[in-house]
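Repro case for the chain-ordering regression, as requested:
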Amino acid sequence: MAADIVILTITGGEFRVLLIERGKDPFGGRLALPGGFVEADETVDDAAARELFEETGFEAGESLLERFGVYSEPDRDPRRRVVSVAYTALVPEPPQTRAGGDAAETAWVPVERALEEPLAFDHSRILGDAVAHARRRLEYTTAATAFCPKEFTIAELRRVYEIVWRTRLDPGNFHRKVLRIEGFLEPVDGTTVRNGGRPAALYTAGPLEWLPLPLSPAR
Amino acid sequence: MAADIVILTITGGEFRVLLIERGKDPFGGRLALPGGFVEADETVDDAAARELFEETGFEAGESLLERFGVYSEPDRDPRRRVVSVAYTALVPEPPQTRAGGDAAETAWVPVERALEEPLAFDHSRILGDAVAHARRRLEYTTAATAFCPKEFTIAELRRVYEIVWRTRLDPGNFHRKVLRIEGFLEPVDGTTVRNGGRPAALYTAGPLEWLPLPLSPAR
DNA sequence: CCAAAAGTGTTCGGTCTACACCCATGA
DNA sequence: TCATGGGTGTAGACCGAACACTTTTGG
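-- result from build under test --
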């Protein structure tokens, strides 16, 4: 039993995933997803949270950690049978990745590029499923706020959707649309000018999890 | 590694789940979800499909079989550690349950009642999660057609939503709403009067999986 | 003053709700 | 002919897209 984790973030205007360069065979030199075995006294969720912390320093509560798949083909690991539970973690900003633990090289790779590259094991398939899952989650749930810092502006939230969906959204309409959804955003005092222009109001994520209607580009 | 399966259907105007009375301890005499261990040469999905067939005679393709959870608390089975992957199967009509295999008693229990009753192991929690999952799936996907026979009328489909959501839907509006969603329903020749009144047109499920907008009761 | 980003107003067209009404069968 | 459920028409409320416009900052 193992937990593999697809850690996604947005930096430099790009949608990125954290990959590790494998040192040893099998697949030595290839990029792979972070992951590890489940210990005897922990749940699979615990193992995923532990793995996330080891790689990024984020506690589970500071990110959106969600199981999305189970990979159990008997020969997916050439050495022996390993059933893997796969998770996505949506994290706010790539704090410099800690080159600790396994001492392997880690890198935030743009998702587009990672999808083209052949990864170790069946990780290409897992990554593809994870990205599809994340895009759908943004559509139906409030998951997008997990990519933002604790306090964020509506425009920053909009940019998350624009980058993940590769679309353009009308700033004015988006503004009203998200504010009308009760429980999505909670206002906080203060404004910021960190994006230039007129000072923008700050918000935090509200308690709502499922959107009452999809936030998709159009109908 | 085990697969537990929450087999849901609609009969007699009620939302029901297939439960098995356990013969042996632990939890002898209690009701439990069907389930079994994963063999060395199969995937977890295979194990779930096999279990479904053993209990109901349905092939995986004739139902909507979906993984929705992983239960891995180290002490969830008092005998030894068992990590269980949980599935929902939405099936059309309860063909008489085959009292084969384990020779245990099986019963289609109304979901409301099953949720109140204490089940074996952590199966009450699994059932609760499964029902919540199924209700949400009906909202966002075309899953409801899995409860209908191969050819069904729009009113039959409407009744699925009404029963699972415990609501009333306007027949006329529902009719137009689902027909307008491209890929949801495909017309077939012929009509039926099996529900009385004016003959109703027949449809089959189309290729669409995710609805472009939630089919919820109202906004 | 200008550029840039935030946020508001307004118009137009489509969609949903509610409910009236017609249709096609069996009894 | 009536009861029953299938299906269509329609008016009004509501909502979303498009886009013009105002606001508030930094340079």
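Ordering looks correct now. The two ends of chain A are 42 Å apart (CA to CA).
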